[in-house]
Design brief:
single chain; about 280 residues; alpha+beta; Nuclear Transport Factor 2, Chain: A; 2 domains; six-stranded mixed β-sheet; 12 strands; about 15% helix; about 40% strand
Length: about 280
């Protein structure tokens, strides 16, 4: 028989599955929501049933699932097809009893430097496999390790980050560490996570704000973070590269797989917003 924890996790994922089915059907009336349900799409508060509810035509199979029964929260990363083409779609729901009280969505459309929908939708064993009990971290420890990653970026110091040398990072489905053969147009991608930071390849990120940790899964060693990266646009990285040339911020949903207190895998989905734009949830944990 499934454990109570497994049953509760499955219940939360079931809510997210029904949300996705309703989205494709353009029918929010299928959902049970609280009277004050809060819904955002790319940081903007909307009425449930508007935004991409009007444009989605199909759902891409597969994707990643994250759940935190203690917090009553569930998330899904996957893909959908809109009238304008394919898009990466990240969803977070908060469930109160049997009703949805919060809906946070992030839409990443084609056109950016990093976009591989097929990889985003390919299930990751790391996100479903349990960590051996002797190598598990507490909720507080998992959040601490994730925060040290962000602090390492802000300080250009890989030594701050508790990360395995072989750790891979994937962004919008594209591998951005330990890439071989070395790409002369993006030489930093051949380096490891800590090496990239210490070498100064992320100097253009001056602050990581509005850090939230909606899902922490001790059994699987996962912590899901929602944050904002601020880019003034005029800061040179290692080698004199100016990444954007204009001010902007990025909305980032990032998940870490942590074993023995070290990051073994990191993956993110994100998109560019106006500089220092509010993502709509800064007042929430």
């Amino acid at each position: 028989m499934p454990t109570p924890t497994a049953t509760e996790r499955d219940r939360l994922i079931g809510h997210a599955e029904r949300y996705l089915e309703a989205l494709v059907a353009h029918d929010p009336g299928r959902l049970t929501v609280t009277p004050g349900v809060r819904f955002t799409e790319n940081g903007q508060p909307l009425a449930l049933g508007s935004g991409r509810w009007l444009t989605v035509t199909a759902r891409e199979p597969g994707g990643q699932w994250f759940a935190d029964p203690a917090a009553g929260q569930v998330a899904h990363w996957g893909g959908v097809h809109e009238l304008g083409g394919p898009a990466i779609f990240a969803l977070r729901l908060k469930i109160d009893g049997e009703a949805i009280s919060e809906v946070e969505t992030l839409v990443v459309r084609e056109g950016g430097a990093l976009f591989d929908l097929a990889t985003v939708c390919t299930p990751r064993p790391a996100f479903t496999e349990a960590v051996e009990s002797s190598r598990r971290s507490s909720r507080e420890e998992l959040v601490l390790v994730a925060n040290r990653y962000f602090e390492g970026i802000e300080r250009d110091d890989g030594d701050v980050v508790h990360v395995a040398d072989e750790c891979l990072r994937i962004e919008n489905g594209v591998q951005t560490t330990r890439v071989t053969p070395r790409d002369p147009e993006a030489p930093w991608r051949a380096l490891g996570v800590a090496e990239q930071l210490t070498a100064g390849f992320f100097r253009y990120i001056v602050a990581i704000r509005d850090r939230r940790f909606p899902i922490v899964d001790e059994e699987r060693g996962l912590v899901l973070c929602h944050v904002r990266f601020d880019h003034p646009g005029n800061i040179e990285t290692a080698g004199g590269r100016v990444v954007f040339g204009y001010p902007n911020s990025a909305a980032i949903f990032e998940v870490f797989k942590i074993e023995g207190g070290r990051i073994e895998h990191v993956e993110a989905v994100g998109t560019i917003f106006p500089y220092r734009m509010d993502l709509g949830w800064a007042d929430r944990s």
